[in-house]
Write a structure and sequence with these properties.
The protein is mostly helical. It contains 17 helices and two strands. A two-stranded antiparallel sheet has the order 1-2. A hairpin with a 2-residue loop joins strand 1 and strand 2. Helix 10 runs antiparallel to helix 11 and helix 11 packs antiparallel against helix 12.
Length: 276
């Protein structure tokens, strides 16, 4: 009977949970965040898959976590140190599992962020901004946050590459943060990806908190539709269809000239928008 219980104990995750009780903390966090995403509808398209991935990656014995390689690309596989970069993808899938296969095929190669950006571009309508060019100034807030975090991170002891990867989170865009981190500080990819997407998913919570702290009751009672009627009318563009075609081509050309390293992201974003 003892042998039977021992076999059941070895087959299940109870032994791993006892050896690594910190799993329970991550499990509690994941359940709490899943509740916010499913019940409270806090950006469920972002929150639910990310948090469920956290749950899968932290299950002891499930071997769904990402195995990080060292600076030379070596990782220990079944007691043997192997260089992962020459390994074919099917071998990575066999030796390291599904999550590592997806990670090294889509994320580590930098393939997925530009593809996501192409989809974002296809879903983005720039017409309101083109009619009201002054609205583009709202993007300055994100740029201010990027450089502020960059400077603070350097003062805290991070390298310039790590600080840039942290600062780009302020751009409020997950693929940008992932792409930049892969290039500059790949060892921070996990925490930066979680931070970038988690804070975007928590925007409804953050906004309501900031509004309640900074806005008066009089400001909260402003009728925005009436304000919009009194505001300046948008610029009337006769050939808007032509402008919508020229805009992504012009933006891609300017970015390629002044910031060529941003072409993979901005180019795919604008290509998606051109296809739209």
């Amino acid at each position: 009977m003892e042998d039977l219980f021992q076999k059941v104990y070895d087959m299940t995750a109870f032994g791993n949970i006892i050896d690594k009780p910190q799993f329970l903390i991550m499990c509690a966090i994941a359940f709490g965040l899943l509740y916010l995403g499913i019940k409270k509808h806090y950006e469920p398209l972002l929150f639910v898959p990310i948090v469920f991935g956290v749950l899968l990656a932290n299950f002891p014995g499930g071997e769904m976590g990402i195995i990080q390689v060292d600076q030379n690309g070596f990782v220990e596989i079944k007691g043997v140190m192997k260089n992962i970069w020459p390994m074919p993808l099917h071998e990575i899938a066999y030796e390291l599992g599904l999550m590592n296969f997806l990670y090294y095929m889509l994320i580590k190669t930098g393939f997925l962020p530009p593809i996501i950006f192409m989809g974002v571009g296809a879903l983005t309508d720039f017409r309101p901004m083109l009619r009201n060019l002054h609205l583009s100034i709202f993007g300055a807030a994100a740029q201010l946050g990027i450089f502020l975090v960059l400077l603070v991170a350097i003062l805290m002891g991070f390298t310039p590459q790590e600080a840039a990867s942290l600062g780009i989170i302020g751009g409020a865009n997950g693929p940008t943060a992932i792409f930049t981190t892969i290039k500059l500080a790949p060892h921070l990819l996990g925490p930066i990806a979680i931070a970038a997407y988690s804070y975007m998913a928590l925007v409804p919570v953050i906004i309501s908190l900031v509004v309640n702290i900074l806005c008066t009751k009089k400001e909260l009672s402003i009728n925005m539709k009436e304000k919009e009627k009194k505001a300046a009318k948008p610029v009337v563009i006769k050939n808007l269809h032509v402008l919508k075609i020229i805009f992504p081509i012009a933006v891609t050309t300017l970015v390629a000239i002044f910031v060529p390293t941003a072409v993979p992201l901005i180019g795919m974003l604008m290509f998606g928008n051109l296809i739209k």
